[in-house]
Amino acid sequence: MRTAPWEGTRVAATNRAGTRFGQYELRRLLGVGGMGEVYEAHDTVRDRTVALKLLDTQLAKSPTYVERFRRESRTAARLQEPHVIPVHDWGEVDGVLFIDMRLVRGQDLHDHLAAHGPLRPHQAVEVIEQVAAALDAAHESGLVHRDIKPANILLTGELFAYLVDFGIAHAESDVQLTSANSAIGSFAYMAPERFEHHTTVSASTDIYALACVLYQSLTGRPPFPRDSNLATVHAHMLTPPPRPSARPGVPPSFDRVVATGMAKDAADRYATAGDLARAARAALAEFAPVRPGDEQPLPETRPQITTPPESAVPQALPQGRPRPGPQHPVPGSGQRASGPVERPLVPAAVQPPRLDAQRAYPSVPPQVQSPNPTRPREHPSAPLPSSPRDRGSRPILIGALLVGVLMTGGVLAWLLVHGSGGGGGTTATGTTGPATRTLAPFSGTVSATDAQGFIDEPRCNAYDPAYAIGRTAASRVLICRTSAGRYYYKGFRISDSAVKEIDDPTPDGSGGFTAVNTADNTRYHLSASALSIDKDGTQLANEQMIEYAHR
Questions:
Q1: Backbone dihedral region of 378: left (phi > 0), alpha (psi from -120 to 50 degrees) or beta?
Q2: pTM of the full structure
Q3: What would you measure as the largest C-alpha separation in the chain, in angstroms?
Q4: Catalytic residue, candidates 100, 108, 136, 147
Q5: Which helix (H) or strand (E) holds 397?
Q6: Is 147 a catalytic residue?
Q7: Cβ neighbours of residue 87 under 8 Å, at least 6 residues apart?
Q8: Which domains does the chain have, with CATH numbers?
Q9: What pLDDT does residue 86 have?
C-alpha cells in the first residue's frame, strides 16, 4: 500500500518525522524521490491531515526554478480534474519549498502490476482513460507532466486512478532545464526527443509516455526492458514500438494504438491524450475477449472441453477459458501450470449478447438487449430445458391450461369454505409454477460484488444467486446455487485471469464449502479464514482470505 504523492524510491538523507515545519506537524515519512520528500502531516491552522511535499533544498537556490515552481503550483492548484491530486497550498519555509496536497491512500500502478500481473484489456483501457483525462486538463492549462510512469499513477478502490507528482512539471514556455546530470523523468518511458539537445518538451512527450504505460499495463513489462540506460535510450530512438499482442490474450488491435502513441516523430502521435484513450477504447470494442456468461447454451449436459497441449495444464479447462500461467494454481484447479495464457478472441461483430455489457462497455445502457432473449441454462450440472413443442400441440396445451385453472379454482373454493385457521388442516403439495426462493442476507461483505458475485469476474450464471464470495490477494472465489438447489464453484486467478469451475461443492455448515475435482481428486476448501487447496494429503496452496461473505 502506498500513499500519494511522491517520486522514486531514493533513500532519504534525513527523516524529519516528529518535527515541526511551519504550521505543519510532520508525522511520518511516506516516500522519497529525486525532487524531495513527502510526509503525512497535520495542518495545525486548518486542522486537517495532508500530504506535504518538501523539495530538495538545492532547488530553492535556483531563482529560475523557484519562479517556475510558483507558477506551476498556481496552475496545478487550479486544475479541477477529478483524476488529479488537489493542491491545497504551496510556498517556502526556511528556504525549503513545499506543496500541500490532499492525502490519498492507495497502491500505485507499478506495485499493482508487480503484485497481480498485467491488467485485463478492459481494465487497462479504464486506467488509461482516467490518466488521459488528467493529462488533457493539464495540457490545456499549459502544463507538461514530464514523468508519466506507472509509479506516478495511484489506484484506489475499483481501479480509480489519480495522476500524481506534478511537482516536477513545467510550463511549455519554459526554457528546457534538463541537462546531462539532471534529467527529469524515467528513461523507460521517455520519448526519443527527450534525449536530443535543445528540444522543447511538449504535451506529445506525455502522450508517448502514456502509450508506454498502456503497453506495460497490458503486458506487465515496460516496452524496452534493457540492462542499461544507454541501451534503453538507443531502443527508444531506433527500435520500432513493441506489439502488446505478443502476449496471449491481448487483442491485435492494440498494436496500432501503441505504435501510434510511441511514434518516433512527435507529429505522428495522437494529438491529445484523450485521442489515445479513445483509440484504445475502440481497439477493445473491435476484439472482445470471451468472458464467463458469453457462451451460448450447448446441447450437451456439460460445456465442450478442449484438451490443452502437453506444455499447458495437465487437466482440461472449459472452452473459452484461459489456460493458467506459471504463477500459482488456478483457484479450484489444484495444479501448478506451466503453459502460456490463452484467451480466445472473437470479433465484436459476432459476439453473442453480453450479460454484463454496461460493465465491459460503459457507453452501452443496461436495457439494450436482443429482443425476446432466451433464458440460458443455469449451469452445466442442471437438467436440459425441454424441447419446444410443435404447432400441433397448441390445442392440447390450451386445454391443459383450462383444466389446471378449473382445478386451481376448486382448491381455492375448498380452502375458502373450510378455512385454514384450525391449525390441524392439511396443505396442498402440488404447484403449477417454480417455488419462490427467499434469499438470506449475506453475513459479511466483499467489495465490488452484487447478488451474483463480483462485478467483474467471476460471476454466477444468469438467474443463479451467489451463496459464498471470497477474495484473497491472488484469487477470487465464488459459490453459486441453481434453482434446482445444486451448487457450483468458480475460482478466478487474478494474475492471468484463469478460471476454474467445479460442480457440486458441499457446505460445511459454517458458511464454508469444499469442492472436489473428481478428475484428479484435488480438494478446494474456502472459509472465512482461507482458501486452501490440497491433493493426496499435500497442500498445494493456502491463501489467506481478505474478505468473505456467505448466506
A1: alpha
A2: 0.51
A3: 99
A4: 147
A5: helix 394-418
A6: yes
A7: 73, 76, 77, 79, 99, 100, 101, 166
A8: 2-288 (1.10.510.10), 449-550 (2.40.128)
A9: 84
